[in-house]
UniProtKB/TrEMBL annotation:
Protein name per its UniProtKB record: TonB-dependent receptor plug domain-containing protein
Organism listed in the record: Treponema rectale
InterPro entries hit by this protein: Plug_dom, Plug_dom_sf
Top-rank taxon, per record: Bacteria
Ranges of residues in domain TonB-dependent receptor plug: 119-219
Recorded coiled-coil stretches: none
Lineage: Bacteria, Pseudomonadati, Spirochaetota, Spirochaetia, Spirochaetales
Amino acid sequence: MKKVYLLGFLFLPALVFSRELKVSVFDGDLEFPLEGAALSLQGSTSSVYSDENGAAVFDVPDDVDSGIITSVLPGYAKSSVEFSSGDVFINVYMSMADVIEGEELIVKRTASQSGGEKTGVSTVISREEMQTTANVGIIEDCMSSVRTLPGVSYSGAWGSKPSIRGGEPKETSCLLDGMYTIFPWHWGGGASIFNPSIVDSIKLSNGVFSARYGRASSGLIEAETLKPDYEKFHVNASLSTTCADLFAQVPFGKNTGGMILGSHLTYLDPLCMAVKATGSDLLDSVERAPYIRDAFIKTSLTPYPELDISMIGFFGSDGIGIDLSEEDKGITTAAKLDYDIYQALGGLNVKYLVTDSFFLQGLLSYNGIYEDLEQKVTENGNVLYNQDFIEKYSSKYSGVYSGAGYELDNLETNVAERINSHLVFGKFEGEIQFSDMNQLCFGVEETFSTTTTKQNINGWSDIETSDGTFFKNINFSTYSKGNCVLDNSVYFSWVHGNENSLIESEVGVRGEFINLWNKKDDYTLNFIPDICPRASVTFTPVRNTSCFERVSFNAGSGIFVSIPMETMMFTKEMGLKNFDVHTNRALLGVIGAEAVFNGGWSVKLESYYRHYLSRIYTYSTLDAASNWEDISLFAKSNGQGHVFGLDFMLEKKREGIWDGYCSYSFVYARLKNPAGISGDESIEPGSDTELDKWFYPSYHRFHTVNLVSNWHFKNNWTLTVKGTLATGTPKEKTGGVTCYAAEMDDGTVIQRYTRSSFYSDTLRTQISCPVDLRIAKNWVSEDNKKSWEFYFALQDVFVNLYSPKGGKSFNSYTGEVSEVEDSADFNIGIPIPSLGFKMNF
């Protein structure tokens, strides 16, 4: 207590008007008072210490309405507790740090798989940091937080699939508790399966990450779910405008284990009905409201102090029903779409601490995706020939003259598609800790994947022949028992140093051997084996000075490999030969620096260059030998490319009434598909693949800026502003709308219109600048064991003032071009409000 009084005397001018805040520090497991804990008010450099009763007293200035008390004690994890103006006393509960307890053994050992943020390698966002950025909009989604990090390009208002450091979204692997996923998205990529109610942290690795990870050539996203409480029952519940979550943690006993289970549901039907009741036609096309239904269960068991077993199960589903009926120039088009997708993910993870210096882990998982799509388009109406069509074809067709036309009578096109994808993943790895400074990691992985596709198309289409173009009803069915792909991997990695060392480095190598087969087609293909060396080093010459907590410099380089979905379409007709094909391979180099200041500020700057050693691409051609009618499909792995980028992040950790960050990413990405098209070949019409020339990929943006600001004003209120400014993506140059004639079987001449489009190196869609607002009120019980939150959010606040535009559509029967440009950002045209209530106890 003398130290408290002395502190008050030295800073008497600032404490003339103050109040006392009593703090008690306890062991969170045994609930006995802790003596000697260093307590500090964040934003201040001074500390007080708890006495033998775990008590201490702060004199809080009257102008400080709220803040955070941080407690530090050797052997315990640092703990922080918020206080507000109405608090007189608070309790701080501390937990043992990284301790596994045996009957007569305490092992301070943590498996490095759960390693956190590392300069030049990865960025970690915790559950607390995602609280404001993930809980906004129709769907609360952790990817909303990931999208604000440096190195992640803006993916549109309804896009969660990220382009990381200039790579295609499919070059990024997403893991849930270490399990590879096929398609961790809902609504075709509009949202992810990473629900904030169950995710504890997400790590984005976009640098030179460890050789223990593969199947990613541009980035890695790892979501870690909550670990159940072994001793206390908890309920996490939330209710928002469109979603409901309920998750319970069930304890089995301190030395036994626990379980977390629950579900996430959307209910957009009332919202759709309410919008329609107002007379608005905004959602008239929604026949079956979009839905998400997810269930999650995780069981953790510790039968022995050295053995940890976890079992995870996830089931997700989403879908929508749309009726796009419209009338344009006397033609009625009714287009109905029913789409459902189901996915299952389950795994068993076993960790065993054999000795204090030898650790083993085994992981086995399965991921299945089942897609069901049905689409029906019906066209009716009378079409009069246009003057330009008459002038062009009246001499050829006697029925084409002024005032003449034809009737569209129930022209139906039906499309049905069923896709089943499966992925089985197995991993076994070990770690040997030679000393505090040296660690060897080694392991093997086996990943098996396959896809089966059924498709039926029954409808009307243009058929081009040497005699002209015909408008026919076609019936086309396919059943593809997809290729089977087996990825065999082995890796070694040596880690020297730790986060407190002057130099921390990691050197590793990963070997990948991939083979493909299809029993139905009697087809096998072995890829060229890949050897992927990787090395990174972090140099930290400055620590714990009067200005800096630390200053670090980093550099690294490595080869990274991914397996594109195009491999599922490989056939023997493509002419691919054994040991003549590479996977997607990229050589990455990164250099950067980070400075962490005392007081919570940090700044990070990184530059990188990625050179594609190989890239798989497919394309279709027509050739003169078949009179330009037969289509040939090709695949090659000689794709070229290079990406240069710069990432910047300025961040203020929460140590007061404000926190947030600003991130900036510059990306320059150019690709080339050197197919070598000969003079007697031509690209299939409608193909969007650029060949034999350098191009910007469709997802490319030069600049993306994100700003996240959290203002914690009085009485536990938080105002969050999340904004993005992103330059446009490549836009095709379109030609004029031109007419052509197509004949039906009965001789009726159909007037048809088309429009040419070409890749442009200069045209871009407009700038995107969505801004989200969120205001929340939090309540925390005196024992810090119960919490509530109420929030109101508004997504894309300025969409009515500014919305990026794309191109204009046209009617294929009349040639009429729409007067309004389509949105390039896929927003719905109005700000999206949401209310939410969360409860944890």
